[in-house]
Write a structure and sequence with these properties.
Layout lengths: L2 H19 L4 H12 L2 E8 L7 E5 L3 H9 L6 H4 L8 E3 H4 L2 H4 L3 H7 L6 E10 L2 E9 L8 H36 L7 E6 L4 E4 L1 H9 L3 E4 L2 E4 L2 H15 L9 E5 L8 E7 L6 E7 L5 E3 L1 H8 L3 H11 L4 H8 L3 H15 L4 H10 L5 E3 L1
Antiparallel strand pairs: 1-2, 1-5, 3-4, 4-5, 6-7, 6-12, 8-9, 10-11, 11-12, 13-14
Helix pairs in contact: 1-2, 1-8, 11-12, 12-14
Length: 370
């Protein structure tokens, strides 16, 4: 093996094992492979029985091409359909379908050719049989077919990719606990995002997803939360960098506003380090136009309130008066005052303002949003 190929092997193996402890590093693995082989790379799931389950996962393809592949072209990809029924862990595209035949397909004309793709190589890194996880590189006619040396390099990489995936699967037991912790963010009356040091979204709670979908001031570009205005985007990028830096410098928190359209108040954004060892930033989003109200069922369980008392407490936090709530409930204000006195006693407060303040500050109460 030449010195260049030995260097490539070392770098590719290092990149493979980096994915074992951080699934977000598959993008780095793709980039490393591209630097040595050229073209564009991807990790994809393949199912012979269910074409709709063929999906691009980590990839360097343009976002529009990734989306169109998952939405349409995965089901008609002749390189996956495998008409010659070739079954080996490593395949180059011409083992699956002759080049001339490939160029006559809709998949080639509408999806491969616009990306300057002609020849591919694919490594099966997990599974076997009808459902597999694969790593692939597709490159241009100018770069040409994959040489014997390049194929041998890929073959030497496969056991390391598989071992990295096994390690990642074992660490997945820890991810179950992390998921349970992240679920707690759903109780907050704020949007919560977790992004990595490259700004890629790793988690969003329900309110965070709503704000990104609304696209007012902040939206999701590919897999990255992005500010619509250049000033907002610069502030977000700088804040994430400060919170996730890995160069040994101090990791910092930042708070700033993101302007929205004229009918909405600015979005309040706080970015802070999420892990002691760095690598993730916690992004908190507060929408001042959305008023939180406690879940009556949570109030009932936590404070021992009756259903009627819990609904009253929630209504007061929602800004309703006793008269308003009396009309909603179809009861008299005298009855509500009796309920309110009982609520005061159970929460050890004497005024409505104290009640609302107490509930608004209680992190154990699950909040909903208007």
């Amino acid at each position: 093996m030449s010195r260049d190929l030995m260097k490539a092997q070392v770098e590719l193996i290092d990149a493979a094992y980096a994915t074992a402890t951080d699934a977000g590093r598959w993008g780095d693995m793709v980039a490393c492979a591209q630097s040595w082989f050229g073209g564009l790379g991807a990790v994809y799931a393949r199912s012979a029985d269910r074409p709709d389950a063929n999906r691009l996962l980590a990839t360097s393809y343009d976002g529009a091409f990734k989306a169109s592949y998952n939405a349409r072209y995965a089901g008609i990809n002749p390189l996956i359909a495998n008409p010659r029924k070739v079954s080996r862990p490593l395949l180059h595209s011409e083992e699956v379908i002759a080049y001339d035949d490939l160029t006559r397909t809709e998949f080639y004309a509408d999806w491969m050719a616009p990306q300057d793709m002609d020849y591919g190589i694919s490594l099966e890194i997990s599974g076997g049989g009808d459902s597999t996880l694969n790593f692939a590189i597709l490159r241009s006619r100018t770069l040409g077919r994959f040489s014997d040396d390049e194929q041998r390099l890929c073959e030497s990489l496969m056991p390391h990719l598989r071992r990295a995936l096994e390690i990642s699967d074992r660490l997945g037991l820890l991810e179950t606990s992390l998921t349970a912790c992240l679920g707690g963010f759903e109780t907050l009356a704020a949007g919560v995002l977790l992004v990595d040091d490259r700004g890629r979204l790793q988690f969003a709670n329900g309110e965070g997803e709503r704000l990104l979908r609304a696209g007012d001031g902040l939206f999701l570009s590919g897999d990255r939360p992005t500010g619509r205005a250049s000033r907002a985007e610069s502030a977000l990028r700088a804040a994430v960098h400060g919170a996730t830096r890995r160069d040994g410098g101090p990791r910092t928190a930042a708070t700033f506003g993101i302007s929205r359209n004229e009918s909405h108040a600015p979005l309040s954004v706080t970015v802070t380090p999420a892990r002691g060892e760095g690598g993730l930033a916690l992004v908190l989003l507060h929408d001042p136009d959305r008023r939180p109200r406690p879940d009556p069922e949570a109030l009932r369980r936590i404070y021992g309130l009756t259903p009627a008392e819990a609904r009253l407490a929630a209504a007061l936090c929602d800004g309703l008066t006793l008269a308003d709530h009396a009309r909603v409930e179809g009861v008299s204000e005298t009855t509500l005052k009796t309920h309110l006195k009982a609520v005061f006693g159970k929460l050890d407060v004497n005024r409505q303002t104290d009640l609302v303040g107490r509930l608004s500050r209680d992190p154990s109460v699950r909040f909903a949003l208007d």
